[in-house]
Amino acid sequence: MTESPGRCAWCGTDPLYVAYHDAEWGVPEHDARALWEKLVLDGFQAGLAWITILRKRESLRAAFADFDPDVVANFDDDDRARLMADPGIIRSRAKIEAAIRGAQIFVEMRDGGEDFSGWLWSFVDGAPVQGERVGGDIPTQTDQSVAMARALKSSGFKFCGPVIVYAFMQATGMVNDHVAGCFRREQVRAMGRS
């Protein structure tokens, strides 16, 4: 993988991808609800291209009550049927069930006094890992993503293997994998120090 001038190569030239790269990808996220949303979206991506999720993200937000875990945790059979009939989202019964169960787990953790954000960030000792990436040497998983995936799965989350979790960690700024030469690399690094 080579990089385009001033930007990570993976985003190519699609305006939606470029905007995502330039404004969101790698920015440290600490809001528990936002982290849960991104984890669900990464789960929906399994087997698909991320651009598919970006194109369907607003429909997914609408279908899943703006990813309010308290609402989604109470989705019933009528909601499941509504979701399976919605052409604007990924209509995978397993992924829909995983999102609903993930909301229930999120609520159980929160109500039990566990901070979802703090728990996730503990896998990187509370601070972004600064990847020293050039060109194509970006891994697909790390020891931290393996550990986080194992913990998520043991808590009952689905669609959260080490590769999906590493993509989640990159997206949420737990890892800064903007490559050398990308204008966002130092900007995101500075965000991790604040």
Describe the structure concisely for a colleague.
With 194 residues, this protein is mainly α. The chain has helices spanning 15-23, 32-45, 50-63, 69-72, 77-84, 93-111, 116-121, 143-155, 162-171, 184-193; strands at 129-130, 175-176.
Structure write-up:
By secondary structure, the chain is mainly α. A two-stranded parallel ribbon has the order 1-2. The longest helix has 19 residues. The protein starts with 14 loop residues before the first helix and ends with a helix.
What does the oligomeric state look like here? single chain
Q: Could you tell me the mean pLDDT? A: 93
Strand arrangement, largest sheet? 1-2
Number of helical elements = 10
Number of β-strand runs = 2
Low-confidence stretches: none
Q: Indicate the radius of gyration in whole angstroms.
A: 17 Å
Helix and strand sequence: HHHHHHHEHHEH
Which terms summarize this structure?
2% strand, two-stranded parallel sheet, mainly alpha, 194 residues, single chain, 2 strands, 10 helices
